[in-house]
């Protein structure tokens, strides 16, 4: 079985963490079978990109990342059209060269429908190669500033075409998957959650400490509602609950520092900045619990990663987060409800002993490890070929 992945988002030298969750899925499947991944960098007409090609191999995973230069003419709408045409034309040439060298794949697997899905549709027409499409984006929720419903007619129509022409679709959460199924009148959308590298993310007993250590990992952007998160912790102090600290991992800005200063929490809330992915595991293993107060999500990787480290979680009920959390491993709160978040933080701290961290980690490991998630994709490949 020869499977070719076309990734709309994927790590590259211009955006090192772009679509890293797609790469983790690729590693999961590559733990079982050979996988070829092709990504053509799409930074848009306003970003200067050099012509290039980089090839990387990790055991059974073969990655090829291409980039192409683009010269603007200065007419914005015309340049945008030209860029999109060149992107698709360049991508098709790359794929034709791949087939000449490696033969025709049995299946194409698209990750994120726009824009690689448009190329997959053409490959289906030209070479009769069926394709699968997997979606990870959260913009199908109306709370997202870049919500699908506000996108251009071209974007919405093209996305629908990609899904409707796919032989099967998957999503990292059942919640968003059902939304997509209804929106595009699809017969079936299979939920396959994000994967965890359990050789890094695993339970490690805590050194006893009188301070309860909360941790949050994200981009710290608008979506993550850091302002609301800080306000909830500020309420704990107002209620004379002060034996806690919060570590925020991610690319913080000056306004985040000012936020902490204004809240009077500079001695309890700490920023690490961006750190390597394997070091995120180390920081999770030092914490008591994880917190996420997002306005919108799909199924963020850090949720199963925290669970695999045995951390109970307090998180907002957006996207597919509630699919991972129950009474044994955390608490769910309404997005934007600061009072509810503060009460849940207090509740979890007071009842911390009821959470069996070893059991939390073991259960998550079984669900989210490479073999489990990889086999779910391989099962779909076998069904398609059958």
Overview of the structural elements:
By secondary structure, this protein is α/β, with parallel strands linked by helices. The chain has twelve helices and 14 strands. 39% of the residues lie in helices and 18% in strands. Helix 1 crosses helix 12. The longest helix has 27 residues. The chain starts with a strand and ends with a helix.
Summarize the entry for a quick read.
By secondary structure, the chain is of the alpha/beta class. The protein has helices at 20-30, 76-102, 116-127, 153-165, 174-183, 226-238, 254-263, 277-284, 302-308, 338-350, 357-368, 370-385; strands spanning 3-7, 35-40, 52-58, 61-67, 107-111, 131-135, 168-171, 189-191, 212-217, 244-249, 269-273, 289-292, 313-316, 330-333.
Residue-averaged pLDDT:
95
Report the end-to-end length measured between terminal Cα atoms. 12 Å
Helix and strand sequence: EHEEEHEHEHEHEEHEHEHEHEEHHH
Anisotropy-based shape:
globular
Portion of residues in beta strands equals: 15-25%
Q: Determine the fraction of residues in helical runs and give it as a percent range.
A: 25-40%
State the low-pLDDT regions, or none. none
Output the radius of gyration. 22 Å
Largest sheet: 8 strands, mixed
Provide the structure class: alpha/beta
Strand order of the largest sheet: 3-4-2-1-5-6-7-8
The counted number of beta strands is 14
Count of separate DSSP helical elements:
12
């Amino acid at each position: 079985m020869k499977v070719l992945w076309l990734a709309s988002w994927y790590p590259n030298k211009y955006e090192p963490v772009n679509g890293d969750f797609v790469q983790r899925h690729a590693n999961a499947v590559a733990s079982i079978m050979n996988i070829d991944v092709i990504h053509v960098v799409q930074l848009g007409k306003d970003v200067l990109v050099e012509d290039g090609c980089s090839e990387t191999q990790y055991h059974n995973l073969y990655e090829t990342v291409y980039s192409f230069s683009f010269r603007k003419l200065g007419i914005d709408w015309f340049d945008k059209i030209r860029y999109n045409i060149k992107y698709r034309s360049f991508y098709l040439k790359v794929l034709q060269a791949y087939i000449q060298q490696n033969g025709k794949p049995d299946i194409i697997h698209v990750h994120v429908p726009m824009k690689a899905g448009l190329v997959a549709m053409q490959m289906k027409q030209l070479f009769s190669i069926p394709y699968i499409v997997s979606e990870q984006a959260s913009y199908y929720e109306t709370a997202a500033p870049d919500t699908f419903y506000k996108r251009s007619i071209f974007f919405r129509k093209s996305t629908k075409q990609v899904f409707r022409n796919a032989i099967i679709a998957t999503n990292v959460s059942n919640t968003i998957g059902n939304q997509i199924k209804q929106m595009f009148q699809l017969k079936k959308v299979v939920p396959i959650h994000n994967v965890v590298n359990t050789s890094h993310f695993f339970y490690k007993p805590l050194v006893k400490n009188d301070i309860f250590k909360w941790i949050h990992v994200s981009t710290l952007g608008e979506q993550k509602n850091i302002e609301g998160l800080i306000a909830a912790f500020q309420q704990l102090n107002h209620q004379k609950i002060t034996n806690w600290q919060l570590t925020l991992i991610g690319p913080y800005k000056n306004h985040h520092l000012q936020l902490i200063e204004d809240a009077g929490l500079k001695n309890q809330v700490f920023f690490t900045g961006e750190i390597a992915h394997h070091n995120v595991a180390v920081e999770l293993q030092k914490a008591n619990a994880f917190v996420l107060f997002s306005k919108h999500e799909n199924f963020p990787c850090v949720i199963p990663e925290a669970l695999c480290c045995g951390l109970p979680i307090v998180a907002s009920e957006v996207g597919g987060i509630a699919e991972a959390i129950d009474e044994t491993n955390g608490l769910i709160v309404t997005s934007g409800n600061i009072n509810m978040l503060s009460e849940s933080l207090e509740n979890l701290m007071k009842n911390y002993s009821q959470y069996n961290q070893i059991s939390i980690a073991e259960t998550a490991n079984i669900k989210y490890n490479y073999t489990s998630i990889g086999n779910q994709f391989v099962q779909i490949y076998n069904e398609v070929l059958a």
